[in-house]
Write a structure and sequence with these properties.
mainly beta; 2 domains; seven-stranded antiparallel beta sheet; four-stranded antiparallel beta sheet; Biotin_lipoyl; Biotin-requiring enzyme; biotin
Length: 161
């Protein structure tokens, strides 16, 4: 059985892509965040501008155009169909690092009230800036890291009240 992904581009175009489709595409990695793609005799130069691994949202530049891309796997789609995705995200009380990296910016302060999807901090990993956003509305209880700190995967970054 092939794994399928739902890809939503700029919130107005949606497509299903299988692992088989991906494996048939000619993709060459040219740096940590850039790729050259050859598909149906067309050449594309792509760059991952930002990535949010928690919510599987990316900003991708293809040739001269920039796109916002949301990717859902089969489990994400099933959870969403069951109506659990909204309730599950509201239970998060701590933000942990999704990967090892360097904190290059913190955009909130202790005691600050944030809304869902507000920018919290920027984590640089593999020469890519990853914006960590708030999974829910709430008040920042503590910020455990400082700008310039190197963090390991799973390190506590921010706690909510």
């Amino acid at each position: 059985m092939s794994t399928h992904y739902k890809v939503k581009v700029n919130k107005d175009f949606e497509a299903m892509i299988s692992e088989e489709d991906i494996s048939k595409t000619n993709i060459v990695k040219t740096s940590d965040s850039t790729f050259h793609i050859l598909e149906e005799h067309q050449s594309y130069h792509t760059e991952i501008i930002t990535s949010d691994f928690n919510s599987k949202k990316y900003t991708v530049k293809v040739n001269a155009n920039t796109y916002d891309v949301d990717i859902s796997n089969q489990l994400d789609m099933m959870i969403s169909e069951m109506g659990f995705s909204i309730g599950a995200s509201k239970q998060v009380n701590a933000i942990k690092s999704p990967m090892p990296g360097l904190i290059i910016d913190i955009q909130v302060a202790v005691g600050q009230t944030v809304k869902e999807d507000d920018y919290l901090l920027v984590l640089e990993a593999m020469k890519m800036e990853n914006i960590i956003t708030s999974p829910r509305e709430g008040t920042i209880k503590s910020i455990v890291v400082s700008k310039g700190d190197a963090v390991d995967k799973g390190k506590l970054l921010i706690e909510f009240e």
